[in-house]
């Protein structure tokens, strides 16, 4: 036993350093792969193999020592194992027999188990199939419901179903074929819905354009009703003011009719909202908004086109009504739709339309030559502006176009009034108007405040004016109303001053000029000239009435009208025209008097005997003057009558003096002067009588009719005077001959000569008094020659 121990010790001592690492690795159960790899890498596999062999020998020695050490126990263990082996064999035989019996018993159960497992598998497959079918049935029902909605044009629920299928069912559909079909059909259905909605939307676009004119007409009609209500209120207010001014307490009443200014023109926007909503659900809202804007822009451009085949007067109402309807729809869309239109887009549409409308109006106004046509267009355009301003649109540029055409309108209106007044004056006979009925009196007199009192006169009533006065007043009143109609509801709030300017222009440039033209160029008789003068006086009084009417229509307080220097300039112009009419009248009278005065040429200026009565011509003149003053008394006011009488008598006196100065009259004698004296006495008597009978004495004038004959009377008195040389006495001349001129007296006195026959034939009968008068006359002639 000691020999092997020594041998192992020697071997360990000899190889302990080599295989220490290898033994430690084996003892720790480590992997020898790295050691083997290292040995091969170092090129010493033999050393490793040698070491491994040493390890094997060491283990064998250890096993051998272990066996020697436990030999007895090993023998016993082997014996026990042999016994165990026998027992195991017996157990094996027993188990084999039991197994055979068990297999015989369990074989039937195994068949049942296989059947059970197969049934469980079938159940599982069926359950899965049922679940798959449920999903497919739900998807199919949704698809069927979607198809029904699409067929019934209920696109929104159809899109909701498609969205539900896409989100919750499409990815979970177990059948690939079904999923593929659905996945393919969803875009097709959406495209179909989009096309269908677009088709319905296009139909709506056509429909809304077709009813836009009706929408605009209805809205403009509402604006017209509102304006009419305002005008009625102003009319009631003016009536109340007029009654208040006249001392009658006005009666106020509540207005039972109320116009709802907030009433909205109704039209169906549901198709638009539906299309917008469907496109929003489809995720193409921006595309639809752009499509809507572009289509509406194209419709607007079509609406803004003017047909040249129809006059603008006939087409302007449909034109503006169509545009009004368009923008009323757009205003409603902007307010109610969410994101379909922006304010900038609507403003762009409105700016484009405004530019076109301004261009159209300016062009059409430039070609319009009738004031009424301009007024009709302007009234409708202002209603159009009022309608759209209520919907938030800015219409000031449109009103500026109307204001810019204001002068042209009034020029056309003045031209029409000029023609009307010309026709009125041309058809007037200038005779006092005879009114037979009360309604005629109210229509021609009271309506223009031409009555002298508030008492209704007895009929027939002879007015102090001719028919042209009320007719002209109607023209002026119509002018005021038309002017107010044009100026109202425009860009200017206070247009009274503008109206006053145009009213002055009508009264001065049209009415007054027509009257002056009639006065200066017409072949007027005396009564006609008188009537024209009387008409002008009446028209002068109407200036205040027309100004008051203008103020009422402009809603201007009457206190402003009644201020000093607030009246019409035409009033002063008419005053001047009255003087022109009186001068024309006097010219006519003078012409007629000249015809009678021409009969003085038939007077025998060298008569042998003094006439006992007045000459024939003076009878004609007195008859004419009587007719003249009687006519003037009926037509003219007293001051005008006075002017006519004074003018006629002055002319007669001047003409008598001019006759003595005439070169055709070479000489005259005392008998002719006596005849002229008789003429003057007759004329003076007539003048005194008519001055008193006509009531002219109430005027308190400085000069009476008789005074108008003073020059001819003083001349005749001088020629008949016994002391004519007293004329050279300043005191006497100032007292008795102040109206005579030296030169005229000198010329006339040179013509005063008695005939030679008479002078020589009556020489013996001439008394001292006659000689004295002759000597005095000769002295006067000589002194006048020296004085001149």
UniProtKB/TrEMBL annotation:
Name of the protein: Exocyst complex component
Ranges of compositional bias, category Basic and acidic residues: 228-245
Location in or out of the cell: Cytoplasm, Cytosol
Entry annotated with the keyword Coiled coil: yes
Annotated region described as Disordered, given as residue ranges: 226-247
PANTHER family: EXOCYST COMPLEX COMPONENT 6, SEC15
Domain Exocyst complex subunit EXOC6/Sec15 C-terminal, chain residue ranges per copy: 397-751
Highest classification ranks of the organism: Eukaryota, Viridiplantae, Streptophyta, Embryophyta, Tracheophyta
Gene3D superfamilies (UniProt xref): Dsl1p vesicle tethering complex, Tip20p subunit, domain D (1.20.58.670), Exocyst complex subunit Sec15 C-terminal domain, N-terminal subdomain (1.10.357.30)
């Amino acid at each position: 036993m000691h020999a092997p121990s020594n041998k192992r010790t020697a071997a360990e001592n000899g190889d302990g350093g080599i295989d220490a690492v290898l033994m430690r690795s084996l003892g720790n159960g480590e992997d020898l792969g790295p050691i083997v790899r290292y040995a091969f890498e170092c090129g010493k596999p033999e050393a490793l193999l040698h070491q491994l062999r040493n390890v094997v020998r060491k283990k064998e020695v250890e096993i051998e020592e272990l066996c020697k050490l436990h030999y007895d126990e090993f023998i016993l263990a082997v014996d026990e194992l042999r016994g165990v082996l026998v027992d195991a064999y017996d157990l094996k035989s027993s188990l084999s027999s039991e197994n055979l019996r068990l297999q015989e018993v369990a074989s039937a159960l195994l068949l049942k188990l296989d059947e059970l497992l197969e049934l469980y598998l079938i159940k599982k497959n069926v359950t899965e199939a049922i679940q798959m079918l449920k999903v497919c049935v739900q998807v199919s029902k949704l698809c069927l419901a979607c198809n029904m909605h699409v067929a019934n044009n209920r696109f929104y629920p159809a899109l909701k179903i498609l969205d539900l299928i896409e989100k919750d069912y499409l990815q979970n559909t177990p059948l690939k074929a079904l999923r593929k079909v659905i996945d393919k059909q969803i875009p097709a259905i959406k495209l179909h819905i989009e096309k269908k909605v677009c088709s319905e939307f296009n139909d709506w676009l056509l429909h809304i354009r077709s009813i836009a004119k009706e929408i605009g007409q209805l809205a403009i009609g509402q604006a017209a009703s509102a304006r009419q209500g305002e005008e009625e209120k102003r009319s009631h207010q003016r009536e109340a003011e007029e009654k208040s001014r006249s001392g009658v307490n006005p009666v106020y009443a509540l207005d039972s009719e109320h116009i709802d200014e907030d009433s909205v023109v109704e039209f169906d926007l549901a198709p638009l909202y539906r299309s917008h909503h469907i496109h929003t659900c489809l995720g193409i809202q921006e595309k639809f908004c752009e499509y809507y804007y572009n289509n509406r822009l194209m419709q607007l451009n079509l609406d803004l086109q003017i047909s040249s085949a129809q006059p603008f007067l006939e087409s302007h109402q449909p034109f503006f009504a169509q545009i009004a309807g368009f923008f009323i729809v757009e205003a409603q869309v902007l307010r109610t739709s969410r994101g379909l239109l922006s304010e900038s887009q609507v403003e762009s549409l409105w700016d484009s339309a405004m530019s076109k409308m301004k261009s159209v109006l300016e062009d059409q106004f430039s070609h319009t030559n009738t004031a009424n046509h301009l007024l009709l267009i302007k009234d409708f355009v202002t209603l159009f502006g009022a309608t759209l301003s209520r919907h938030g649109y800015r219409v000031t540029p449109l009103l500026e176009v109307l204001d810019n055409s204001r002068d042209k309108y009034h020029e056309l209106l003045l031209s029409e009034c000029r023609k009307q007044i010309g026709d009125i004056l041309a058809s007037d006979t200038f005779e006092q108007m005879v009114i037979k009925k009360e309604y005629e009196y109210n229509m021609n007199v009271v309506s223009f405040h031409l009555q002298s009192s508030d008492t209704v006169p007895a009929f027939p009533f002879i007015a102090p004016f001719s028919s042209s006065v009320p007719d002209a007043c109607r023209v002026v009143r119509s002018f005021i109303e038309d002017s107010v109609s044009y100026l109202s509801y425009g860009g200017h709030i206070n247009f009274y001053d503008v109206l006053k300017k145009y009213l002055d222009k009508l009264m001065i440039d049209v009415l007054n000029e027509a009257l002056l033209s009639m006065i200066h160029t017409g072949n007027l008789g005396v009564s006609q000239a008188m009537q024209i003068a009387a008409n002008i006086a009446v028209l002068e009084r109407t200036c205040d009435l027309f100004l008051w009417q203008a103020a009422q229509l402009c809603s201007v307080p009457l206190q402003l009208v009644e201020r000093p220097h607030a009246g019409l300039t035409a009033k002063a112009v008419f005053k001047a025209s009255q003087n022109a009419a009186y001068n024309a009248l006097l010219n006519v009278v003078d012409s007629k008097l000249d015809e009678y005065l021409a009969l003085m040429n038939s007077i025998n200026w060298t008569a042998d005997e003094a006439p006992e009565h007045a000459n024939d011509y003076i009878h004609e003149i007195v008859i004419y003057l009587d007719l003249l003053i009687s006519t003037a008394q009926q037509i003219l006011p007293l001051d005008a009558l006075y002017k006519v009488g004074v003018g006629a008598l002055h002319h007669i006196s001047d003409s008598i003096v001019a006759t003595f100065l005439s070169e055709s009259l070479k000489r005259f004698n005392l008998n002719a002067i006596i005849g002229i004296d008789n003429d003057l006495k007759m004329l003076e008597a007539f003048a005194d009588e008519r001055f008193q009978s006509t009531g002219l004495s109430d005027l308190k004038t400085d000069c009476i009719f008789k005074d108008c004959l003073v020059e001819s009377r003083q001349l005749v008195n001088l020629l008949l005077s016994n002391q004519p040389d007293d004329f050279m006495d300043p005191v006497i001349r100032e007292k008795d001959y102040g109206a005579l001129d030296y030169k005229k007296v000198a010329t006339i006195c040179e013509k005063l000569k008695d005939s030679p026959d008479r002078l020589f034939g009556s020489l013996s009968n001439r008394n001292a008094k006659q000689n004295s008068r002759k000597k005095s006359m000769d002295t006067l002639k000589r002194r006048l020659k020296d004085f001149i």
